[in-house]
């Protein structure tokens, strides 16, 4: 069964459009399961009906025409119950509904199962047999397994452009739903980072000019042959025999009689050169991949590699992809956006970011927010070439990304962008007023910094200090650990930019989604692994070097606060404090020699691992301040990976459990007289800031781009009113309800414009 399943999925995956794939699927399933008919209906939510999309056994002319309302027939029943229905005689079932167009009169036995992806019924796959009988449990289990695979296939099909009908152009309007990464609206031309032509991601398309495409293909093969000959000549002295064999295989494949004949035959059917190459090569690669001989299996990779070279030459000769000029306004599109990647675009017109991987609180999203660039994350399955060189509109509030829009939509988007600009111009114009609520409560607003490649000293001028300086970036941007001097220079810049404001520097918090290339750590669960203080305590050399660099940078200043990340037990604080003391003693003399005063730094702890909720009295005895990391606290309290788009809908800092934890921290920190700052992303969101202020927090640290917005919220907020809502909010069942109530409050205070821009 497993090999049948593998074969089905492999064959289906190679077909260019969803409808062709479904057609192949029903055909193979019918023959594998030895039934008289296999059909697949797709759900159309707009019209609330299931539409026959493929069949092998029923009347083919009914495809696309037979539409079964969601609440009718056996198909409707399966969709409604979200489980298989197995009947010996369909005609005798009370829900049976006859559709004469499908000509199913002779079929009695029926089994169908829903195709479900992320709780949504996408369609129904069903089998029918002439004789009256119940399908057995093995049949049912196999069908359910196929349906689960098909669900993934269908959900990816739209994202990868396969949803088109055969021959349909890809240039029709498309909208994808990702995860909001950084608030804001943006429009620009899609620029795919390090764009490489690959058959895997190529979106098939048709051609009207068959002769032209045949010449394009032949020319590309010729160019590839020359390139391969050159490569093999350059290496011929050093090549071992088995690699020489690979070049021989390349030459055979490039021969017009093997690959070429099949590719040209596909071009003659109307597919363009690159699509034809894709179909033929993927079929070849699948055949090799299925061979028993491991040597031959390996050759699948060579075939794909060679074909990708041909594809690049096809693309070059037909100038298919104009690469956008990064001096124009553009939207950066990448499989996974990273800090070093963004550094490359720091002086370009980067209007927005689309990252296929990651989620709302991945560090890439935090970085985008720090840069004030709208971003959408987690567009899983979207094919990069779909966005390359296309005009894109992205909505960083809702996570929507659109392309191929018409002029009416373009005008609509432009209007939304200018409304947003007007709102922020107004907010910015009032930014000099101090953040004091309508009823006189003063709030300290601090800055989170350190996420960008360069130290942006401008950021430190704003706010009441730096609530969180993330020190990871200089470590991530190099190919070795930065030296003590290199670190010291950066820290000095930061500390001296505002000698009279407190600057909180966090010790290295790598691990999780912030790996170091030169210190690779292989772990099954990196977020639960060797991260933050765990790693640096195991490497006192790294920890001491960093703390010494911080202390040296603070010579003659008294604003250094040291913050310890990822602490989960008391001993970690004791150990870290011992090392800080050691570093202090090591540099003290040096400071004296240079006639500098060396002030003892305040030491604080990040509250971001749930265990610390129950250790607050012990922690309070040991540290000078608390810093609440809502990003990780949410992740660990809810057991939801902050980086995983599959569970993004479960990740919310407005979850009542998270809010109750935050409330507890605030109360305990007041009781033990340890100042607490919130430095997670929640503090920089209008609704989040309202809740935190209502709970009693007086210190919020956020990215510099959120400062003006939150200042505006505070000045238009009545503390007593918000405080009176807190008990009720903490007793709510869901994050949505909590957000709704506060959005309503923002509206009532005349901050409606921020409601859309709320989160
Ligand atoms: C947090 O976890 O809330 C936090 C501020 O730290 P980071 O996002 O860098 O993990
Ligand atoms: Mg954290």
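Sequence proposed for the structure above (759 residues):
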């Amino acid at each position: 069964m497993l090999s049948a399943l593998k074969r089905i999925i492999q064959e289906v995956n190679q077909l260019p459009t969803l409808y062709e794939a479904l057609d192949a699927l029903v055909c193979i399933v019918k023959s594998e399961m030895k039934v008289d008919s296999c059909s697949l209906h797709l759900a159309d939510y707009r019209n609330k009906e299931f539409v026959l999309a493929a069949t092998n056994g029923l009347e083919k002319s009914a495809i696309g025409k037979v539409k079964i309302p969601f609440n009718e027939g056996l198909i409707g029943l399966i969709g409604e119950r979200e489980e298989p229905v197995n009947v010996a005689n369909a005609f005798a079932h009370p829900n049976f509904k006859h559709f004469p167009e499908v000509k199913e009169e002779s079929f009695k036995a029926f089994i169908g199962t829903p195709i479900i992806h992320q709780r949504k019924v996408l369609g129904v796959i069903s089998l029918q047999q002439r004789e009256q009988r119940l399908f057995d449990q093995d049949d049912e289990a196999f069908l359910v397994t196929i349906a689960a695979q098909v669900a993934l296939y269908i959900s990816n099909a739209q994202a990868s452009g396969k949803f088109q009908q055969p021959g349909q152009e890809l240039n029709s309007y498309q909208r994808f739903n990702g995860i909001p990464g950084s608030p804001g609206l943006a429009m620009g031309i899609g620029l795919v980072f390090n764009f490489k032509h690959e058959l895997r991601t190529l979106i098939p398309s048709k051609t009207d000019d068959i002769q032209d495409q045949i010449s394009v293909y032949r020319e590309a093969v010729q160019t590839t042959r020359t390139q391969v000959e050159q490569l093999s000549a350059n290496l011929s002295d050093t090549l071992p025999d088995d690699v020489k064999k690979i070049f021989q295989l390349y030459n055979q494949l490039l021969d017009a009689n093997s690959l070429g004949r099949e590719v040209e035959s596909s071009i003659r059917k109307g597919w363009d050169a690159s699509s034809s190459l894709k179909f033929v090569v993927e079929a070849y690669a699948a055949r090799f991949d299925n061979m028993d001989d491991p040597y031959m299996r390996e050759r699948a990779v060579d075939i794909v590699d060679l074909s990708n070279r041909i594809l690049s030459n096809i693309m070059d000769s037909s100038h298919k992809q104009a690469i956008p000029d990064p001096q124009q306004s553009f939207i950066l599109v990448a499989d996974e956006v990273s800090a070093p990647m963004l550094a490359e675009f720091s002086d370009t017109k980067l209007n927005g970011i689309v990252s296929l991987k990651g989620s709302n609180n991945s560090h890439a999203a935090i970085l985008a927010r720090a840069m004030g660039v709208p971003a959408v994350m987690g567009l899983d399955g979207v094919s990069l070439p779909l966005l390359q060189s296309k005009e894109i509109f992205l909505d960083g509030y809702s996570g929507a990304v659109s392309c191929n829009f018409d002029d009416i939509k373009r005008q609509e988007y432009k209007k939304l962008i200018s409304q947003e600009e007007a709102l922020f111009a107004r907010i910015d114009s009032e930014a000099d007023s101090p953040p004091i609520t309508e009823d006189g409560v003063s709030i300290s607003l601090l800055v989170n910094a350190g996420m960008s490649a360069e130290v942006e000293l401008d950021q430190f001028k704003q706010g009441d200090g730096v609530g969180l300086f993330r020190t990871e970036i200089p470590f991530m941007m190099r190919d070795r650990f930065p030296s003590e001097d290199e670190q010291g220079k950066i820290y000095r810049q930061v500390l001296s930019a505002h000698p009279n404001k407190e600057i909180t520097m966090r010790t290295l918090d790598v691990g999780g989604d912030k790996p170091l290339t030169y210190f690779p750590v292989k772990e099954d669960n990196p977020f639960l692994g060797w991260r933050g203080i765990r790693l640096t305590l195991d490497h006192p050399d790294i920890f001491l070097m960093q703390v010494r660099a911080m202390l040296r940078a603070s010579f003659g200043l008294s604003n250094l606060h040291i913050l310890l990340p990822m602490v989960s037990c008391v001993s970690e604080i004791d150990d870290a404090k011992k090392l800080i003391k050691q570093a202090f003693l090591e540099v003290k003399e040096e400071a004296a020699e240079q006639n500098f005063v060396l002030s003892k730094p305040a030491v604080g702890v990040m509250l971001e691992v749930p265990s610390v909720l129950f250790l607050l009295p012990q922690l309070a005895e040991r540290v000078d301040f608390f810093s609440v990391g809502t990003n990780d606290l949410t992740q660990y309290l809810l057991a939801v990976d902050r980086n995983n788009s599959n569970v993004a809908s479960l990740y919310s800092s407005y979850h009542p459990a998270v809010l109750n934890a935050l409330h507890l921290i605030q109360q305990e920190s007041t009781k033990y007289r340890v100042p607490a700052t919130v430095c997670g992303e929640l503090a920089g969101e209008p609704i989040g800031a309202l809740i935190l202020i209502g709970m009693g927090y007086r210190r919020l640290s956020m990215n510099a781009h959120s400062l003006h917005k939150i200042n505006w919220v505070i000045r238009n907020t009545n503390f007593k009113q918000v405080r009176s809502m807190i008990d009720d909010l903490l007793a709510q069942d869901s994050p949505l309800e909590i957000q709704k109530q506060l959005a309503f409050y923002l509206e009532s205070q005349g901050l409606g414009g921020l409601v859309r821009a709320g989160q």
